[in-house]
Write a structure and sequence with these properties.
- The protein is globular and about 80 Å long.
- The strands form four sheets. The chain has a five-stranded parallel beta sheet with strand order 1-2-3-4-5.
- It is built from 20 helices and 14 strands.
- α8 crosses α15 and α19 packs across α20.
Length: about 575
């Protein structure tokens, strides 16, 4: 790097914002002392983000780093650390003051007030973003369809760089016009408050977050209501989105077909999906979700308070990108969102059809949230909207309702000591708020995936769902051992095969997986299902896999009957 002419080398160490033990800090010291002893004329920056370095600040300032990158937004104690302990005069502070994870324009008065508190000489201060800009879209220039009344409040990656130069210009005394324009923007209301919703949230009381009767009594009522066989079979919700399904949606969005034509195509898909599930013998059916593009975007498009972009893509993982909605204002439900499709599917069969909803925590975590309202209050607004949809499904004869929370863990604080106080203490009640008013005979399911859940099982059990399906098959069902140890009461569908691979599990393989599950979980508590939704899979592999799942389940039931279990 030195030979190539670099002046600075940045070494990312975000793990330092997590809880650090003495052993962790000793290891960090042992690793970095040799590196810092041989800098070859380079300046070394230790960059942190997503939190504060309360456990390692003294160590970082004592080691021979030339610069430290600190997060002044998510780092709850960063400013206090720098002010109370001071900052070494021989080091450069890279101050993360522009939000690298959200898309709102910065309030320059607030940023300037923060900067003025930093005990650092001007020539030792670098203004920066709180983290890399990987988490936000590239530029607002790619959004020509977005109305200026919205756009002026937003800052994507390119605009955030402009904000940094704006602040520099203001601090050097040449930015009066820039500052006044920013002040004028923040002096006016951004949106019209929905007073009905804000009053509803403010008036919530403890009883609104609890469902009666208790789980065990509900389980007995539901067993009688549904009379399902042992090891009831179902799917997670979505069925393959074929090229024809995607084309139908695209043509509708482009105005090439009417709403009636669009709906009729989806009805045909739902009918075929229900007929297939009945044919192979699944016990609890789904409508297939052919009308849905994305599990968050679909609901956001129908709720008040959301704003959508055309090209604001961000990386999810690998080459997969997503286009998160923006929570612009107060969230409210104004009409049925899923009732029509669920009721139609239920009309085609005597078997129960699950209503399918996305939970409030996932909707929050997979959107760009507001910064003028706490995550807790925003999530409660969403929860009330999803609660209304839940009750509408129930009123229209849907007796099993699944409220998915695949992103529950995604906003869990990096410090374990903050898990409950800063997140779970409101995230779990938000889920309970959604289903707290349904009848005891209505069975509430939820689904979780993409995460490790073993260390928050108590919180998951406290969601008080009747059934939960996990993505556990890829981890060889090790999660089930923890369920036993933690006396997990919720009935579970651990997933009997991995849908993320096109490989078709054999009937024998699925039967073996079911038998493994039954060694870890009581028979009466087990559901049989794939480990995730089938939206991204092909029709041929889905058909064969589900046929094998049902056949294997029937085989295991026969063996259990033979054994007298």
């Amino acid at each position: 790097m030195a030979d190539l002419g670099a002046e600075w080398v940045q070494l990312d160490e975000p793990s330092l914002v997590k809880d650090q033990s003495e052993a962790d800090l000793e290891l960090f010291t042992d690793l970095y002392k040799p590196i810092l002893a041989t800098k070859h004329g380079l300046k070394i920056l230790a960059q942190t983000y997503f939190g504060d370095v309360r456990d390692s600040y003294d160590l970082l300032t004592s080691l021979d780093f030339d610069g430290l990158g600190l997060d002044f937004l998510e780092g709850a104690e960063t400013l206090d650390l720098v002010k109370s302990k001071g900052f070494p005069a021989d080091k450069t502070l890279f101050a993360g003051i522009i939000n690298g994870k959200n898309i709102w324009k910065a309030n320059y008065d607030k940023k300037l007030a923060l900067i003025k508190q930093l005990p650092v000489a001007d020539d030792k201060l670098v203004l920066s973003t709180s983290c890399s800009l990987l988490h936000v879209p590239y530029t607002l220039a790619n959004e020509p369809q977005l109305d200026e009344k919205y756009k002026r409040y937003l800052a994507f990656a390119a605009e955030k760089l402009t904000e940094l130069t704006d602040l520099e210009t203001i601090l050097t005394g040449n930015g009066d016009a820039i500052l006044k324009a920013n002040q004028a923007l923040f002096a006016q209301p951004r949106y019209e408050e929905n007073e009905t919703i804000t009053r509803q949230v403010a008036s919530l009381k403890e009883s609104d977050f609890h469902r009666e009767p208790a789980f065990e009594e509900r389980a007995a009522i539901q067993k009688k209501e549904f009379n399902l066989p042992e090891l009831p079979t179902t799917t997670i919700g979505s069925f393959p989105q074929t090229r024809e399904v995607r084309r139908n949606r695209s043509k509708f969005k482009k105005g090439e077909i009417t709403k009636d034509q669009y709906d009729e195509f989806n009805r045909e898909q739902i009918k075929a999906c229900v007929e297939f599930q009945e044919k192979i013998g699944l016990d609890v059916l789904v409508h297939g979700e052919f009308e849905r593009n994305d599990m968050v975007e679909y609901f956001g498009e129908q709720l008040e308070g959301f704003l959508f972009t055309s090209n604001a893509w961000v990386q999810s993982y690998g080459v997969r990108c997503v286009k998160p909605p923006i929570i612009w204002g107060d969230v409210a439900r104004t009409h049925d969102m899923t009732v029509k499709e669920s009721v139609y599917a239920q009309s085609l069969t005597d078997k129960p059809v699950k209503g399918m909803l996305t939970g409030p925590v996932t909707i929050l975590n997979w959107s760009f949230p507001r910064e003028d309202l706490s995550p807790k209050e925003t999530t409660y607004q969403i929860a009330l909207a999803i609660q209304a949809e839940t009750l509408a499904l129930e009123k229209n004869g849907i007796k099993i309702i699944q409220i998915d929370e695949p992103a529950l863990r995604e906003n869990l604080p990096l410090r374990k000591s903050d898990w409950y106080s800063r997140y779970l203490d409101w995230a779990i009640p938000a889920f309970r708020l959604v289903h707290s008013k349904v009848q005891p005979s209505t069975q509430v399911h939820t689904h979780m995936c993409y995460s490790e859940f073993g260390d928050i099982l108590d919180a998951i059990d406290a969601m008080d769902a009747d059934v939960i399906s996990f993505e556990a098959s890829r981890a060889d069902l090790t999660l089930l051992d923890q369920l036993n140890r933690d006396h997990f009461k919720t009935h579970v569908g651990p997933g009997v095969y991995d849908i993320h691979s096109p490989r078709i599990p054999s009937e024998k393989e699925v039967a073996g997986t079911i038998e493994k599950i039954l060694k870890k979980v009581p028979l009466n508590n087990v559901w049989i299902n794939p480990d995730c939704g089938l939206k991204t899979r092909g029709e041929t592999e889905t058909t064969a896999s589900l046929e094998n799942v049902v056949a294997a389940t029937k085989e295991v039931r026969q063996e259990l009957a033979h054994e007298g279990r």
